[in-house]
What does this fold into?
Amino acid sequence: MKKMLALTALVVMTAAEIFAYNPPVGGEDLFKWTSPDLIMGGASATGGAFLNVVPPSICYNPALTAREDRTMVDFSGTLFFNSEKVNLPGDEDSFFGAGFQLGTIIPTRYYVFTVTGQGLFSGFNTFDVKDSVVFHGGASKDIIENRLYVGMNIYAGFYFGDNSDFTIGVDFGALYYFEKDIGILKKPRMGFSLLNVGKPLSGYETYGYDYDNYGEDSSYPGILTPRASFAATLFDTSNFDGFFSTDVSFPTFQNVVLDFSFATTFLNLVTLSAAYQVNFREMMEDVNNAVTPSIGLNFHFEINSSKLNKPGWERSQVLPSFAWQEIYKGIHAASFGFKANLGMADKSAPEIILWDEE
It folds into this structure.
């Protein structure tokens, strides 16, 4: 009888742990806040409306980098500032927070390898994701050329502050390009990923949805989070192109989050992007994150200089970017980024000469 009672108690406690859900506001998107490209819509399993792949894109689908054929380096930083202090009982609110991200994509003959690391430092009462440093490393490749790509990440990180904890796990992803257009939708693609398969941050005292229970049941980002996405080109002309994407994800299978993004490219030089998110649990708890859409700009510059030593690198590309969003109750994020694609894009098939006709 004692064994049966002990087993029942264990099952009840396990079930309570599994179904407890009180992450901090913004915690489900922990890995996007340090990159302007992700804030403006790139936090997507298809890379967002305008397929703008950067190293931290693997945090949302490890397969996204598989089409990259040039080495990329990327650095970004975000400044958070609070225009509306929310002083909760016994806790003064903060004015400033910050984050940074540094990563690289390295294509090889068989795989594309990606490494990215981010630091996030935010202790706002209404955006209480605390302080963390997390590293992701991924590998991706094509399964069907120009059609199907797959990828996998491993990640590990540390969280510190009043208390400390760690996270470790793996991510899986796939990206599929349709062979034909779908009606007016051109170049359609779909992305699927299963994220945060491992140990999330837990036992860390944060303000979750329920402000009255500080630190209770706080665990983030959502363990076992499936994500699906669809994206396509809406129109393309000689001077303007338009794109869109939509995502749905299920953090911890206890929430539904919808993401939408739109982008327009002008003369292949400037891209204007906007994104909007609907987080149903945050809306239900009256801590709705959908204050305003995020907006952002990407600039495209080609380097044409014979002074670069490595052959082909005189056609490198640099892409600075900027994004802004009021994310939670007066908390603003201003994010800046800089990435460089090194070398020439390989868009032509290899030329094979069987014999010389001289």
Notes: The first helix runs from residue 2 to 19. The helical segments are 2-19, 36-42, 280-284. The chain has a mean pLDDT of 84.
